[in-house]
């Protein structure tokens, strides 16, 4: 019973964190969850746990779709390039899932880790809240961010 209550409390805390997060924080949360999914998928693929790998890869694709759909290409010169990266990663993740290829999952990780680090750095800047609010993808469109 205690474990159930703890799980419910953690879920509520996660929901509150998402609802109260700034746009910059939502963006970094999306990237953090994306990388968590990718690492879980890679580990599952290497272990031959194809259902677990597929679940993680599908969730990662949902996150990339959210990042793509919320990117404001009219407000940032680099948006078209980032959109192309997202399209490439989406294709790579689909292929990684269909072909059960951990090397493709690793390729997606290697592409997304530097982007996540860059967004974390940008979010930490004093003016990040102002600039990221208007130009960057912020997510949240019903996408489950839970880290469990």
Automatic annotation (TrEMBL):
InterPro entries from the UniProt entry: FliS, FliS_sf
Pfam families: FliS
Predominant location: cytoplasm
Keywords, in A-Z order: Bacterial flagellum biogenesis, Cell projection, Chaperone, Cilium, Cytoplasm, Flagellum
Lineage: superkingdom: Bacteria
Membrane spanning residue stretches: none
The keyword Cytoplasm is assigned to this record: yes
Annotated localization: Cytoplasm, Cytosol
Family: Belongs to the FliS family.
Name this protein carries in UniProt: Flagellar export chaperone FliS
Organism listed in the record: Leifsonia stereocauli
Gene: fliS
């Amino acid at each position: 019973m205690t474990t159930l209550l703890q799980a419910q409390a953690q879920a509520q805390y996660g929901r509150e964190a998402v609802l109260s997060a700034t746009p910059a924080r939502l963006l970094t949360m999306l990237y953090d969850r994306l990388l968590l999914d990718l690492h879980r998928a890679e580990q599952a693929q290497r272990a031959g746990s194809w259902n677990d790998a597929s679940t993680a890869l599908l969730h990662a694709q949902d996150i990339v779709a959210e990042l793509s759909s919320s990117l404001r290409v009219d407000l940032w010169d680099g948006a078209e390039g980032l959109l192309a990266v997202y399209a490439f990663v989406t294709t790579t993740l689909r292929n990684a899932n269909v072909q059960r290829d951990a090397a493709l999952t690793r390729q997606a990780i290697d592409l997304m880790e530097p982007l996540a680090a860059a967004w974390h750095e940008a979010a930490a800047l004093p003016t990040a809240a102002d600039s990221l609010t208007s130009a960057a993808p912020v997510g949240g469109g019903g996408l489950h961010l839970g880290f469990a």
